[in-house]
Write a structure and sequence with these properties.
Layout lengths: L9 E2 L2 E2 H39 L7 H13 L6 H17 L9 H6 L4
Antiparallel strand pairs: 1-2
């Protein structure tokens, strides 16, 4: 009767190096996911504090607002352009009304923004 083959350095048919790699990947995933969760919750907490204090915050970052403006200018005949203009104008109005913007907006850039 043949005895089952015993392979040194394997657990459940997987090498020790593969187990170590999987454990490291799982730990790295949970560390990054936890960090992202806490960062997101801190940002949302800051947004809520600003909304309670100021009544509103801007809805777009400087790059997002510029991208929206570029899209509006390159798609003037799009059926969604009026909605996009309303969103753009709401953000510009909010930026001019709030004391402290959420995103990093230079005051000079805020002063130069105009509604569409």
């Amino acid at each position: 009767m043949a005895e089952p083959a015993v392979v040194v350095g394997q657990v459940a048919g997987i090498s020790l190096e593969a187990w170590i790699g999987m454990v490291i990947a799982i730990i790295a995933f949970w560390v990054l996911a936890t960090w992202a969760l806490f960062k997101t919750l801190r940002q949302d907490e800051r947004k809520m504090e600003m909304i309670e204090r100021q009544g509103k915050i801007e809805t777009y970052s400087p790059k997002a607002l510029q991208d929206l403006r570029d899209w509006i200018e390159t798609n003037p005949d799009d059926p969604l352009v009026e909605e996009a203009k309303d969103e753009y104008n709401d953000c510009v109005e909010s930026l001019k009304e709030v004391e402290e913007p959420f995103y990093d907006w230079p005051q000079e850039k805020i002063d130069n923004l105009e509604k569409l």
